[in-house]
Amino acid sequence: MPSETMPAAAQEAAAGVFRIALGVEYNGFNYRGFQLQQTGTPSIQGHLEQALQQVNADIPVRLSCAGRTDAMVHACGQVVHFDTPIERSMRSWVMGANRYLPRDISVVWAQSMPQDFHARFSAIARRYRYVIYSDEVRPAHMAQEVTWTHRALDIEKMRAAAQYFIGTHDFSALRATGCQARSPVRTIHHLQVLESGKLIIIDVRANAFLHHMVRNIAGILMTIGAGERPIDWAQAALKSCDRKAGGVTAAPYGLYMVQVEYPEQFKLPERYLGPHFLSGLPDILAEN
Q1: What is the pLDDT of residues 3-23, one digit of tens each?
Q2: pLDDT 10s digits, 41-57
Q3: Residue 232 annotated as catalytic
Q4: Class of residue 208 by CB neighbours under 10 A (exposed 0-12, middle 13-18, buried 19+)
């Protein structure tokens, strides 16, 4: 029987099972979301599990994820885990999985974890970025990776409105009608609106998010930025706790899961915050 003083990896070996965490990034445009769908419907989870099964000596793999992103939503920092009796190097899990994955899904790191780690339930914070391209003319490039608006957006109005969402609130007005979360209360740690050229980035970090919560925040901020509603409409919508008062849900294309945070004891690899095309921008993102 494994000793409580044994290192986590040694305990796993003694128990005959290994828990592996993976960092995953993907362009979600061609998928019906992360979660496994019915037969024939493309999902990120479905492709990952099929690829990992090839590396796992043809033993089926079932993944747990940090957050089930919606259809056409992207990720730069998704975290998943699975259990396996097969011992492989971490490089083998990464390179082996990528060999069988489509080009719009990549495993970027792998790490052996203790059995008390869970990709979803161990997470203490999540971070998303919503990227808007504001211009009269629609972009030919990155059309599936940003949300385009022809309206000129007032960045200062958006920043002022964003302040109403920071803190612990009942976000009933900002969640999808079919959201299955037991409680609508969430805590937003920071919410910033950043600008670089024609790009506007809504950067939000919270303990957890409700279904469509970030897209509904983006919808409200874009409406206010376009001058269609006053700044304090954000506060009125939030306090109403009524989805009908919460405005239009913004399109999914510009939304990225960029980071999942865990207690320091797990020591997961750290990568730069995405998406990739923002990495060359000035230091507006480096300090946020």
Answers
A1: 455 555 555 555 689 999 999
A2: 899 999 999 999 999 99
A3: no
A4: middle
